[in-house]
Every structure is written in C-alpha cells, then in structure tokens.
Amino acid sequence: MDRVLSGMRPTGKLHIGHYFGALKNWVELQDKYDCFYFIADWHALTTNYENPEDIIALRKEMILDWLSVGIDIKKSTLFVQSKNIYHAELFLLLSMITPVSWLERCPTYKEIRNEIKDKDLSNLGFLSYPVLQTADIIIYNAKYVPVGVDQLPHLEISREIVRRFHYLYNGDLFVEPEGLLTNVPKLLGTDGRKMSKSYGNAIMLSEEPKSVEKKIKTMMTDTNRKLRSDPGNPEVCPVFDYHKVFSDEEERSFVTDGCKNATIGCIDCKKVLIKNILSFLEPIQAKRAEYEKIIDDLDEFLSKTQQKANDVAAGTVKKVRKVLRI
Question: Which among 280, 305, 279 has a CA at the least distance from the CA of 69?
Fold first, then answer.
C-alpha cells in the first residue's frame, strides 16, 4: 500500500475540532494506506521554546485521545518524533540546500508571525520548520500527506526541496509527497472564535458531560434573534454549524423550522445538540478510560512501532549519506 504520513504537535488533550479536522480522516485512512502517525514534539518548540510545557505528559494525553477515537496501533505506525534522531539529521542536511527566501515566503510563516505578537519568533527553528516538516515526510517516503486546502502551499515547499535535492545530486532518492485533500466541517469555538484550548472555547474529547452542557448552553446564537418570539436564521448561527455535524436530518429540520418560525427557543435548539454531542463523546471517553488503565509507560507501549519508524528512517538516511559522500 502507498504510505501516508501525518503528525500533530503535543498540545495535551484534543478537542472535537481536532477530531473532525484530522483524526476522523486518519481513522478512515488506516484501512486504505500504510499509515505513519507521529507526535511532533520538536515542532512544539518552534513557537514555545521559552516556556516549554511538560511535553512528556502531553505526549501521553495525545496518544490516549488518538486511540480513543479509533487510531489502531496494530494498523498504524505510531511514534514520537524526538525519539527518532534521524529526523534531526535529515533536517540538517536538507537545510544546506534550502534557500532562505523559500522559507520567508511561506504563507503559514507570515500568518503565525502576524497572529502571535507576544513572542519573539525571530528564531531559526521557527523560520526553518518547513525543512523539518519536509524531513518528517520524506524520511519515510510517504506518498501522501492529508491536508486541508490552506496547507497545500506549505506542502509545496517540501516538494520543491525534494526537486532541488534530486537536481543537485542527479537522482530520485525521495518520493515527492502529494496532498491528500480532506473536507473539514466548519466548527468554531463556543464563543464564535477559532476553536482553541487556550481560548477556553473548545469542547474536549475527554470533557466531563456537565462541562460540555454548560459550554453549549452559553454558545453564541443568531445575534439578531433577541427575543424568543423573534424568528431566527440558522445559517448565521454557530450552533447550527454544530447541528450539521452532530444531528440527523430530522433533527436539523426540527431546529430549522422552529428557529425560522420562532416556535422553539435557542435553549430548545441547544438541548438537541447537547444530547447528540454527549452521545458522540460517550464511547470515545469509555475507550479512553480503558487505555488509561493499560498504558503506564508510553515509551514501552510504543516501543515496537517506534522501532519500526526508526528503522525505516535509518535506512533513508543511510542512502542520503551515501549520496552526499559523508
């Protein structure tokens, strides 16, 4: 099977945006491709180098969430980036041939610098993270990388680096990675902003039911519907975006008609959503609880798949060293 590679920075427990934005697709890909999924803990330091969190603990939280939604360690190769030193070596070697101008024009680089004003991001690690990302991908000869449309320019840098390597050294050592486009549903945070743990507006996959209920009850709705007797417009209501994901057709019709005709209030609409989200989370949380009992030492749990990833990476770097005569 063709190989797929993807990774996540360890930010701790994951939320429903992570599930619908990536994990749901990862689960489905397991039966179609040879999937390598990794915890990108070195990448976490590119923007959080001054006050690194407890990455060891965060790695475990992330793996527990992956397993709880259906990522299967028997089907996929799960591993930790920093436990594979070959990523760092290939990153260094690729940095020798990557023009700085390519990195400075990266859209994501510009966006994050504009978004994060309270940190000094003039460090080399942040500028060159697309090179590390390229090493992450091509060291496993992954043909596909699941991405959203907005991430395609980022992947194009990886493709350019591969082409430059092949041009300079007259070969075709690496697979040129392709984007595997995924459709991501629109799910903003409960306050209408981008869903983020740091904003406190995300519904976590492992969140307590009472907390979930409280967050949904305080969600923004159609701001033009000030009174229960006022008709509303579901298409401009953030709550209805959640209904598109969690509710069935009959429930969406009930909510749509009731909102437009003012026969139900916003709390009635939210009650339907609360029921459906809690039903969605229940089996995930039950499975997570089972793995929490099983996994004591994460390194031990991942030992076989980590070794598999390390062996594949070592084989690639051996070939690169030969090409570079080192």
Answer: 280
pLDDT at 122: 83
pLDDT tens column, 199-220: 889 999 999 999 999 999 999 8
Q: What is the pLDDT, as a whole number, of residue 197?
A: 82
Res 36 pLDDT > 80: yes
User: CA-CA distance, 259 to 145, in Å (whole number)?
Assistant: 41
Q: Is the pLDDT of residue 92 over 90?
A: yes
CA distance 305 to 61: 18
Domains 3-187+297-324 and 207-287 alike in fold: no
Specify the CATH superfamily of domain 3-187+297-324. HUPs (3.40.50.620)
Which residues make Cβ contacts (< 8 Å) with residue 7, sequence separation at least 6?
A: 37, 38, 39, 40, 43, 81, 136
Instruction: Dig out the tokens for 22 from the structure.
Output: 């990536």
Cα–Cα distance for residue pair 96/165, rounded to 1 Å: 10
Pick from 290, 288, 307, 291: nearest CA to 299 = 307
Of the candidate CATH numbers 1.10.3720.10, 1.10.240.10, 3.60.20.10, 3.30.70.20, the domain formed by 207-287 belongs to 1.10.240.10
Give this prediction's pTM: 0.93
